[in-house]
Specification:
- The protein is about 20% helix and about 20% strand.
- The chain contains nine helices and 17 strands.
Length: about 325
């Protein structure tokens, strides 16, 4: 069954196919021009740095709910190995890791989602093979650095954590920016706080994932709603990340009944908007509330996995 016509109408309005040429593979990251990044550096006032990453370890965020997205398994391949034959000369230890590229704090590549047989910019879904993505792979993102803006939606509503099923919409984003006194600019990287990551940090992954809906085989959880995609488009946002597991509201935006996982399609496929999940925004939110500064310089470049559908990242906000 296709998405409701109301969703498809929005998809048509925010579609960026061809906007930066028929061969474009990075979408809205084109907004991160040299001038935009230069201006972003003015957000650095004290040099304070806050990492927004969740640690990569075997007891991580993945519980098996998302098949195959395994937590990091790190093993040693050499231990205090003497390569020169002399115990008083150079020795080394080395390790390897197996992990899902999107198992913890990460970016989704534009190749991560498809619908109607198409990826971003009209590329065919068949370009994704067992070898990965031949177009729109995460390695196309050479850097992802610019002005970050935290929009604390939980704080806007006067709660620690948004209620399950809360669809963050156009008005939420507008009102949060106004309440925080922050101006939204072309090329901004928006970080949206639901408050859910506090559960993850406390080891409560059940509440982090959301309330089970057994009859649907899915959970109810707060996240990005359909009209937020229009807000991202109207404000020329370069990228957006959230502090929840699936990015978008589940099981669907109540105003668009049945549109399950529609926001991935609107962002990644239609708009070409890079999105991220599992970002730890708790320390940053507390710091922004304390000093009233909700913008910062953000360095969040992905690892260049060729053909990768996403990438782990250690985002650092510099204030």
């Amino acid at each position: 069954m296709p998405y409701p016509q109301s969703v498809l109408d929005i998809a048509a309005r925010i579609n960026n196919w061809g906007r930066w040429g028929e061969d474009d593979q990075i979408g809205t990251l084109n907004f991160l021009t040299d001038e935009v990044v230069k201006e972003a550096a003015q957000c650095i006032r004290t040099g304070k740095r806050i990492s927004l990453a969740y640690p990569l370890h075997k007891d991580g965020l993945q519980t098996g709910v998302i098949p195959g997205r395994v937590n990091p398994l790190k093993t040693m391949v050499s231990l205090n190995h003497g390569m020169l034959g002399d115990p008083d000369m150079f020795h080394t230890s080395d390790d390897v890791v197996t992990m899902g590229l999107q198992c913890a704090t990460h970016w989704d590549g534009l190749c991560h989602a498809m619908y109607g047989g198409k990826l971003y910019n009209g590329h065919d879904a068949s370009t994704i093979t067992e070898w990965g993505a031949s177009v729109c792979g995460i390695e196309q993102v050479k850097s992802l650095t610019g002005r970050g803006v935290l929009l604390d939606i939980a704080k806007l509503h006067g709660v620690d954590v948004l209620e399950p099923g809360h669809a963050i919409g156009y008005d939420d984003l507008t009102n949060a920016a106004e309440a925080q006194g922050v101006e939204i600019r072309t090329g901004d990287i928006i970080l949206v706080r639901t408050g859910l990551f506090a559960y993850a940090k406390a080891g409560d992954l059940d509440n982090y994932y959301g309330e089970p809906i057994p009859e649907m085989g899915i959970v109810r959880s707060a996240g990005i709603g359909v009209t937020a995609c229009e807000w991202f488009y109207d404000h020329n946002i370069a990228a957006v990340a959230t502090d929840n597991i699936v990015f978008e509201v589940l099981p669907y935006d109540p105003a668009f009944e049945g549109a399950i996982i529609a926001i991935h399609c609107l962002n990644l496929v239609d708009m070409g908007l890079t999105q991220g999940q599992n970002w730890d925004l708790e320390e940053l939110a507390a710091d922004c509330a304390a000093d009233g500064q909700y913008d910062f310089f953000l360095e969040a470049s992905p690892q260049p996995f060729v053909g990768g559908l996403g990438s782990p990242v250690n985002p650092v906000a510099i204030k």
